[in-house]
Automatic annotation (TrEMBL):
<keyword id="KW-0808">Transferase</keyword>
<dbReference type="InterPro" id="IPR001296">
    <property type="entry name" value="Glyco_trans_1"/>
</dbReference>
<feature type="domain" description="Glycosyl transferase family 1">
    <location>
        <begin position="177"/>
        <end position="325"/>
    </location>
</feature>
<protein>
    <recommendedName>
        <fullName>Glycosyl transferase family 1 domain-containing protein</fullName>
    </recommendedName>
</protein>
<dbReference type="Pfam" id="PF00534">
    <property type="entry name" value="Glycos_transf_1"/>
</dbReference>
Amino acid sequence: MHIHQLVTRLAWGDAIGNQVRYLQSLLRSWGHTSEIYADSWDDACRDQVRAARSYPREATRDSVLLVHHSFESRQVPLIARSRGRKLLVYHNITPARLFEGYDRGAVLACDAARLELLALRPHVDGAFAYSRFSAEELVAAGYPRVDVLPFAIDWNAFDTPPDPALMAELDDGCSNILFVGRAVPSKYVDDVLRVFTAYQRLYQPKSRLLIAGNIHRDAPYGGFLHGLKDLLGPDRIQFLGRVNAAQLSACFASATAYLSMSRHEGFGVPLLEAMYRDVPVVAYGAAAVPETMGGAGLTTFSREPMDVAQLLAVLEREPALRQQVLTAQRARVAALSQKAVAAQVRTALQGWLGGSGPGPAVAPSQAPAIELVCPGFSARPEAPMSRLARELHRRLPDSRILALRGRGEEPALALGPQTAGGAPVWHFTPDQPVGPAPEPLPSSSSLETAVRASSGKVVLLGVDTAAAQALMASVGRRSWGVRDAAGASDEASTEAARHHLGPRLVELDRTDLDAVANVLVQALSSKKKRGARDARR
């Protein structure tokens, strides 16, 4: 069969590019004709890629196209007019808010990419994600057939001998803490610097931090990192920039531990690469990181530099714990052997190659008329907003409550109501761990996508929450918001709410929740009556 792949850009050395090329090698080894199509590419890839604009002419009704989506692509029209079957492969989209203040272009591109995720839905037959975390967002977006595709890693690519010159420089008795990845705001490399500063000053003066990955000093975030380094003042921080395979091998071979403080990962390949190279991993448990770790390494739910620095110190000072961590990591890597994963990938794709896909489509549930967005409903059931959500749902039976899952609860491939606090609640996995009150609640890409995919009216219970701030610009015209003046809302979030909601922003009176509920019920009910009259006309 002809099974091709479409990406926005084919880059050499990044996770998506590596994945696309490895999938192509698997497909060809199984006897399929397989090409890679892209709008742009690195010079190193020019012999491996065809121009995306040529695909509609070359596709046949028997072709299968794997559409890789992770960033703004502007490829929806091309996909819509192409013949053959199409399957989405979702790598996840970084929330736009993680780039705010540093990269306006990335903010706009991430928002556009999420709109494209909804626009792609009617043009594909099914969808895959590389983690349950990402798959939950596809379900929230209304994709009827969603499955998790194992991430096929070419482990042999990590077996390059270390660069001898860099190895000699790094192998000097220092404890080397390593991070690998692009220096972008979502990776929170600044937190890596803060953790290392605490580690060096409190536990290990003879230590070094290695940052291996692109860093643009002239860009806002790159300049911020260099300034932060000077401000914090630790010794031996090295920004290595982009490294080749041999230099990367030297970094891992000399590393005492691998540290990640990233706030959002659809699947964290460098975490598994560190495990493969027998380097113990300490990672902040955001998004799909715990799922990638698979119970191995050390996952922290604290962002406090001294807490994470203590984990690095314990790993160094407790040989038994270090060995236990390494043993668990080796087991995790063994479960992802190339042979096993290749077989799982083939099984996942096989259902689409000769039939209509792996089972019937999931029938979409009836859309509610009103979305009550209350992120802390289950985590903080006695908070004023949670109590107001219960009262609103009691008075508005055609509404549903959307809330965050608790810590440790796995993402779901089927979203539906669960009873919590005496009301049916749709739960969504948070992008970051939910901390104890009064710590601010995180947002959830899945929850945000569910609201954007809905046509119902929206009530944002807590306009200072991360979810409300992310949603107001896109659903402001059909939303109301509630502000708790006695809570922890800051002036910036209040101004944003006033800008997007105007008179639909309601002040919460903690002593009289019934009065607030009356205002919202009356507003929502009158809106429904006007809509019904307009429909009759």
